[in-house]
Fold each of these.
Amino acid sequence: MDREAKLARLLEHPTIWRGRSAAHQHGLPSGFAALDAYLPGCGWPRTGLIEILVSRFGSGELYLLLPALAALTRAAAARWCVWVAPPLMPFAPALVSQGIVLDRVAVVGGARPLWAFEQVLGSGACDVALAWARWPKSREIRRLQLAAERGRTLGVLFRPRRAVREASAAVLRLSLQPISSGVRITLLKGRGAMRGAVDLLRPSWPV
Amino acid sequence: MSLHVLRATAGKADKAALPADAGGVQPRAAPLRITPRHAPGGRTGELWAGLHLPGITLEKLHKLAVCAQRFTPRVSLAPPDGLLLEVQGSLHLFAGAAGLRGALRSECRRLQVQPVLAFAPAALAALVAARAGKPLVVMDPAQLTGQLAPLPLASLRWPPDTLARLARMGVRTIGAALRLPRAGFARRVGSEQLAMLDVLTGRTPEARVTFHAPERFRRRRELDCELENQRRLAAALSPLFAELGAFLAARQCAVVEFECRFQHRHVPATRCVVRLAAPASDVRRLAALLSEQLGSLALPEPVRSCELRVEAPVACQPDSHALWQPGEHGGSAGHEAAGLIERLRARLGEDAVHGLTLCAGHRPEKAWARTAPPAAGRRGAPGGGAVVAPAQCRPLWLLPVPQPLRMRAGLPRRRGALRLVSEPERIETGWWDGGEITRDYYTAVDIHGVRLWVFRERTAPHGWYLHGVFG
C-alpha cells in the first residue's frame, strides 16, 4: 500500500476533524463556474453574513451577486430581497433584464442603515438582504451575523477595501479588485476555504 | 328477530333516559302554554315610526341611526333614505307620539335634514306613509288598512313598468290594489308584490334587521404621578393594552389603526397615531410598535393621563400558522413581512420602505417608479407585469439627476480621462410633455476600471453627463 492511500485511511478515523468538513455542503450557485469551484460549499452560503470589500463603488460587486439574486426571487416560495440604504437608486429595468422579479424587491431608506439591516435580517421575511455601510464596528457585525442566522437570511454587506485587516464575525469575506480583463476575487475568510484568488474574466461578465 | 331485539332495547333506553334528562321534572306535566305574541288578525303589539329623509347621504343616515338609538334599541335602516324605529315601549317616556315626533325632529334638525314622520303598527306601512308625505299616526291596527287606502302606489317603490301597468288598469292607490282579487294580482303583477302588500297591512309579520352601531374602544388611565420617561409611559400603558386584547378577543376583531393620547397639565394633549400594514390583534406587537413611536415623540410637558383609542376595529379570522419556519424547507414569509414593514415605518417614517416597478417609456428617469412594498403572498408575472425590460444594456444604478462631467478636447473626464467602450445609443423622446431629451448614451470606463453610463447632449452646449453606474 502506498503512502497516500495509507494517509487517506488514517484520515477517515472518526475522531479526526478536518476544517473542510465545516463548510456547508449545499451552497447557493453563484452562476459563475470558476467562483463556485473556489467558494467553500460550491456557492454562496444560504444563511449568514458575507462581506464584500471593494476598492471603489461600482467595481463589479453587484454583478457578482445578480445570478444568485435572480434565482432566489424566482423560487416558488420566494421571500423578499431587500436593499438597505443603497448609495444610489437601483435601476428597475436593469434588474428585470438580469432576471430579478421586481415583486420580491423592496428598498429601505432612512437614517439608520445598520439598525434597519439588523431588523431585516432577523425578521425571517427575507431571503437575502444587501446593505452598504462605511464603518461598522466589529460588535455590530457580530450582531448582524447573529440576526442573519436567526432569520435564516443571507446578508451581504459591502464595505470599503480598507477594512481588510479588521477582524469580522462574517461567515465569508471576499475582496474584489478590478483588473484589466475582469475582476479578481480574493477570499479573506471562509469556513473550510481554500487559499488564493480567482479571476473572473470579462467574457463571462454579463455587461 | 334481531330487529325486535333492537326495538326493545331502544325503547328501554328511551324510558331509562327520560327521567334523567328531565332532571326531576315529570315528563307528563301540563303542556307548555305559549302566549301568542302576535294576536290574531295581524296585531303585533308593535308601533313603528317611519322617517323619510329625502336627499340624505348614507353617512348621515348612519349618524342618525346612532343618534336614534337613544329612543329605542330597535332601529332599522331602510336605505337610501329611510329609517325605522320600533317605539311602542318608549312612547310613554316621551309623552306619546306627539312628544316623540318633536324629539325626533329636533334630532334630525341637528343633522340638517328635513324628515317626514309617520307612525303605524307595521314597519313598511309607516315608511310608505312617510314617503307619501302623510304624517299619519295610526295606533290601532284595525284602522291601518283604511288609513293606507288613499296613499299612492308609487310610494311602494315598485318597478316602473309594474306601476305603469297597474295605472293603465286604473289602479293608482294602495286601496285600489288591495281590492283586487289576490290570485289574479299574484299572477298578473307578481307574488313578490302581493307579499309586500301583506306586509304593508300587517297580515304577515316582517323581520327587520336591527342596526348595530360600530363598536369602538376607548380607555383612559389616570397616572399616579406625572411621567415624562418614555419607557415608563409604555409600562403605564400596558393595562390598557391588556384591556384592548380582551376586547379584541371577545369580538374576533383586529386593529388597523390606533391612537394614543397623552394629556398634560397646561398644553393640549399629544397624539400618537400608529398605522399598521395589515390588521393585527396581537397586543404585544401593538405595544411594541407604540413604544417604537414613543421613542421619537417629543413630549412638551409631563403626562398626567393617557388614553388608548381604536375607532374602527375590523373583523378578522385568526390565521393559521405554517408548519415550517420561514426559509426552512422552502417555507415562505407570511405575517413576518407585515411586521417588518411596520417596525421599519414606526422608526424610520412612513416612506422608509418601498418597492420598485417598471413604467412604459424610453426616458431612463421615467422607466421606473416607486410602489407600495411587496405583499407577502402575492406573486405577479415575472418582469413586473405588462411592461417589458429594454433589450439594451442598462446600468444597475441610476443617478437621481444627471451629473455634469468636465471635458477636455470634446471627451468627458472624471478623475481622469474616460474611455468610451460602446456604440452610442440615441434616446430622443418626450417632446409631447415638455420633458424632452435628445441624448447619445455611451458606456465608459474610468481609470479605475469602473464602468459608467454617460451621455452627450445633442443640443447646443453638447455637454457630457454621468447618468449611471454599472455596478
Amino acid sequence: MEEIITEEKIDAQQYEIGVTQRTKQLKKDLITKACYVGKYADGIFVDVIRAKLYMESYKATEADAPVMKRAKALKYVLGNLPISILNNEIIVGNPHADPHALPIFPEINTGLLTEAIDDGYVRKEDLDDANKLLEYWDGKTIASKVAENMSDWIKDVVNTSSSFISTTWKDGIQHCVPNWDYLFENGTTELKKKIQTKLDEVFNEIDRGNSTKLSELIEKRYQYQAMIISLEAVELFTGRYEKLAIEMAEKESDSKRAQELCDMATMLSKVLKERPSSLYEACQSFFFLHLILNCIDSAAFGSLVRIDQIFWTTYKKNVIDEKTITQKDAQEIIETLILKIQVLGGFFSRKRRLHFEGNGALPIWSIGGVKPDGTDACNEMTDTILMAARSIRCNQPTISIMYHKNMRDSSLTEAIKTIRDGLGYPSITNTDWMIRSLQRQGIAKEIARNSGVVGCVSVCPVDSCNTTKRLALTIIAVKALELALNEGKCLVSGKLMGPEEIKADKFTTYEEVVAAFEKQLKFSIRTAVNVRNLSRHYEKTYRPNPLASALHRSPLITGIDAVSYEDEPNNYWLNMVGMINIVNSLAVIKKLVFEDKKYSMENFITAMRTNWEGLEVMRQEVINKVSKFGNDDPYTNEIAEEVFRISSKVAEGTYDINGGYWSILAQSVSIYQATAAMTGAMPDGKLSGKPVADGGISPDHGTDNNGIFSVLNSAGKIDHDITKGLLLNQWISPEMLAGEEGIEWMKSILELWHENNLSQLQVNVVDPEVLRDAQKYPEKYPHLTIRISGYTANWVKLTPELQEMILERTCQNK
Amino acid sequence: MEKCLITRIVRDSILDGPGCRYTIFVKGCHLRCEWCHNPETQSLKQEILRYPKFCIKCGNCVKAIGGNPEKDVMPIIIDNTKAEMYYSCVDNCPTNALEYAGKEFSVSQLLDDMQKYRTVYNRTKGGLTISGGEPLLHENFSYNLFAKAKSAGFHTAVDTTAAFEWELLEKFLPVIDLWMIDIKHLYDSKLKSVLVLENLLKLSSIKDINIWIRVPLIPGYNDLDNLLKEMAEVIKKAGKAIKQVSILPFHPLGDAKYNALCRNYQFAKHDELNTEILNKTRNKFAEILKPVEVITGIRMIHG
C-alpha cells in the first residue's frame, strides 16, 4: 500500500484577502514596483525630484564637511519633497507624491540614471534635469573613486570577472535601520537633547583649547550637529504630514474619513518625537523611518528588525491591558503596514532586474527567537504578524522566524500555516546556531541573543551600527574550480582570471586538485575583498549617515558616524555561489579519476572545454552513477565538509580595512540564474550556459533521491558554526502539511533540522501541478507566491525560463 | 544476517500508519491482484525497470549481451522472467533507462538508517511500517526487523493482505502494534477472501489489538452496492479492534510501472474513480460502521 492524500487541497484562489474592508481595498489598489521579465509595470516611472533637491542642497553646501552636506541635504529633501495621503490610508508616507514613482540616487551610482533614461523610465519633461544630475555627479560617486585605485589588469578582472559579482560595491549600503529599542525608549525629542549635551561638551573642550585633540573635536562637532539636523529633518517631514492630514480633514466630506484624518493628525503630532503610546503610532513611526532611511536618504532595503519585539509593548498595552483595540484591529494595522512596505521599490539595473526578478526590495522581518535572558520571546504580536501576513499575502517584507525548541506553540503553528499557504515565508533561522555563530565572533551571549536577520540569511545583533555599513560580496565559488582545472583561464572569456596553474592532467592526486581550487579561490576572494575595502574607505569619507548615527547608541557616545564606527565585530560576508557543484564535481573526480581510474583528468578537461560534446555517455555516468550531495552518503558528506572548511579558512584570511575578517555564507538568491552565462561546463555534468545549484547548500536539481531527512543529515555534516549562514531550500507538497498531522510532521522535521545544527531552512510548499496549471492559467492564481533562495516572487509573473528551472528542481514527496 | 529485496524506502511517510513512518516496500507477494499499482513488488526475484525516455541510445545495453546497436531496440527489451540475463545491461547503462526494481538491505542496515531520524518518529508517535509486496511472505526478515525495531522503542505497523495460515499471523502478534489489512472482496478464491476474513475475525478477538482496514474500490471488481454493503457488515463484526477504515479509489497511474516492467496493465484504460462514487461508498461504510472513522484517500504513485 502506498500513499494516500487527504482531500484537503490548498487552492491559491480560496484565500480571503485582508482582515477588514479597508485592507481588502488597499490590497486591490496596490501599485506594484516589482519588475518582471526585466521590466517594471506600465505607468511606473523614475522621478528625479528627490535627486534634484538633493543636488541643489549639495551645490549650496559645497564648503561643508561631508557629514554636514549629508544632513543638510536630507533636511532640504524632507522639507521640499511633494507629499500625499492616499485614499483609505491610515499609515502614511511615500517617497513621492505619486505612488507610481521610483526614486533614483545618482549620487551613489550615475550608471543607474543613465539606464533609466535609456530604458525610457524618465519622463520627457524630466530629461533636462536628469542630464544635469548626470553632469553634476560625474566623477563624484564612490564607484568612480574606487576605480581610480585599480591597476589596469585588476580593473579588467573586476569588470569582466565571472569570479565575483563586481557591481555589489557600486550600490553602497544595502540595509539601514535604527536601533528601534533605543529610538522608541527616547523619541527624537530626548535624542536631540542627548546629542545637544554631547555637542555642548565638545564646544567646551574646543573653548578650553585642547590643541592635540582639536582635529578630532572639530570632526565630532560636525558629527553631532549633523545628527541633530537629521533628527530635525525627520520632525520637519512628519510635521508636514500632520499639516496635510489636518487640511484634508477639513475638506473631507465623508465624516468617518474626516474623523480618521483628525485622529491621524493627532497621532502625527507626536509620532517619533516621544515613546509611542499606541500600536498605531509605533507602526507609523516604524514606517516613517523605514521610508526615510531606505528610500529617501539612501537606496537600501532595511532589514534587521525584531518586529514582534519592538511592537510588543504597545500591543500588550492596547489589546491586552487597556483593551482599547481588539486583536483584529491590531491585525488591520499590521496589514496596512505590510502594504505600505510592499509598495516601496527601487530602480534597479537591467542585470539586477533580471537577477532579482519579481521583487521590489528585500526587507526582512525577524520574529520569535529568545529574549536577552534566553527565555522564549514569542508573544501575541508574533502570532498577529503572521496572521496579518497570511491574510494580506504580499511578497515583501519577507519574514524569518527564529526557531528554538521552547517556542510558544501557537507561534510555531502559525508560522507553519503561513508556509503551508504557499507564501514562501517565513524562512526559519536556528536561534541556537545564531547565538553560537555570533559568540564565535566575540559577541557576548546576551547581545547575541538579541539579534535578527539582515538580508536573506546573515544574522547581526540589534544593538549595533552594522547594518549601516553592511558589506556583502557575491563570489562565484564554482569558478575557482573551473580556473583550477583550466590553467587559471576562464572557460567563458578565455582570459586569465587568476594565478596561472599547471595543466590539470599533471595532477597526480585528488589532494592536488583540491589545493589548486583553494589557490584560485584565494585569489578571487582577495581581489573581490580589495575592491570592496576600497569602496568601504570612500563610503566612510564621503557617505556618512548622520540620521542612522542619531538612532544608535555608539555614535552618541563616541561622536563617530555609524558608517565609520568600527568598535564592534563586523558583519561582512562572502556569499558563495555554486558550492554544491564544487562538492559534486570533486566527488566525481575523486571517484572516477583517482579511485576507479575509469576516466583520466584529460577526459574531464576535454569535457569542460568542449561542453561535454560527444561525451554524453560519460556525462550520464557522471550524473547517474556517482552519488551526489544530499543523499546522506558519507563519501560526498565528507567532501562537502572539506569544501566548506577550506572556503571558510580562505575567507577568514582576508580582512576589512579595520582588520576584521570576512566570513562565508551561502545562498544564491536568483543570482544563480545569472551564473548560467558566467560559468563553463563542470565535472559534475553541468553544462556551459546552465546555472549552478540554487540555494546555498541545497542539493543540485534532481540529485537528491532519498527525501528531506537525508538532505538534512547531509547538510548536518557541514559545520554551520564557522559560517554566517548556509541556506537550505526544500520543497514540500502542501498535502504533507495538511491538517494537524501535517503541522506536527513539520514540527518534527524542524526538530531534526535543529538537531543537525543547521542555520537556515526555507520551505516552499507548492505542488508542481499547481505551478504547471498556473503557467497555463495565470489568471487563476494571481496570488501564488514562491520563494527563490531568500526572497519571494509572484509565480505567474516570472519568466518561463525561471519557471522551468524551478519546476526542474526535486520536489520532495511528489 | 537476514536480507531482503526492497523496492523503495520512504523515510517521511505520513500515510502508512500513525505519525511519521519509516516505510519500506518489500519485493514479493503471493497474490496477483489485477489492479495492483505496484507490479514491481509482486515477484520475489530481482527485476529490471525500463524507461525509454531516459535512453540516450548509446548501445551499451545491447552490446553487453552481444546484440547489434545498429538494429536492436534501445533500451533493450527486457524479459523479466529471465531478468538475470539482463543484469549486465543494467550495469552498463549510464542513465536510468534501465534500473533494478529492488535493492537488497539487511535488517541492521535499515535499523541503523531509521535510528538517524528517531527524533521525528518519536515526536510524531510514528515508527516503522513494512509494506510491499507482502511483508509476511518474508517471514524471517520481517519478523526480525519488527522485533528489533520494537525493542528499540519504535512503533511497528504492517501493511498486509493477511492471506496466510493463522499460525503465521499469530507468530507476528507480539512484534506488531498496528495491523493494516486490505479487504478487497468476500468471495474471491484467487485472493483467498474467505481466509482473510477468518483471520480478521481471529485477530480482532485478540486483546488490545489495533487494526486499520483498507478497502480498494475497483471498477468492475468490487464496486457493487450489495457487495460493498456486505463487506462493511463483515468488517463491523471485527468490532472495537477496528480503529479506522479507509476507502481507496482506483487510479490508473500504475500503468507507468507495468510499461517499465514490459508488462501489460489490464486496468490501464480505466479512469480514476470519481469522487462522487467514492464519497457515496464512504458514507455507506460510515453509516454501517459507526462510530468507526471512515476516510477516503487518493492513492498516489511513487517515483
